[in-house]
Structures are given as structure tokens and as C-alpha cells.
Design a protein that fits this description.
mainly alpha
């Protein structure tokens, strides 16, 4: 079960989505991490960067799947 924050369906989010992916990819690479969020355990780092970039750069308060479903273990 995976939830998405309803903010992801807003025009504001949709407009910056491709830039956001690039920003997250760059942040991961800057820290020497692989940019593939599907690798085991990397989703948490990906979400951390996504949350941080969305808030700091775009002023969007986003909630990760783990924030939305704290009873679910993501790996």
C-alpha cells in the first residue's frame, strides 16, 4: 500500500515536477549516492531530499509515503 500526498495532484506541484526530479537527482549525486530511488533503502533518502527541496526551494510542505502511512515499513 502506497499513499501519495494530495499536494502532488496540484497544478503548482505538477509544474515543478520535472525540475524537482533533477534537483533530487543532483542532491543524491552531490552526496555520492546513486540516483535510483528503487534501490533498497534509498527511498528514505530520496524522500528526505524531496521534502527538503520542496520546502526550501518551492515552499511546498510535502508528506512522504512513510509520513502518510507510519504503520507501513518501507524498504
Amino acid at each position: 500500500m502506497s499513499e501519495i500526498d494530495p499536494i502532488e495532484n496540484t497544478d503548482r506541484y505538477i509544474k515543478i515536477q520535472s525540475r524537482l526530479r533533477e534537483d533530487i537527482q543532483q542532491a543524491l549525486e552531490n552526496d555520492g549516492l546513486p540516483g535510483n530511488p528503487l534501490k533498497r533503502g534509498l527511498c528514505h533518502l530520496y524522500w528526505m531530499y524531496k521534502k527538503q527541496i520542496l520546502l526550501e526551494k518551492y515552499g511546498i510542505n510535502w508528506r512522504s509515503p512513510s509520513d502518510l502511512t507510519p504503520h507501513v515499513v518501507f524498504d
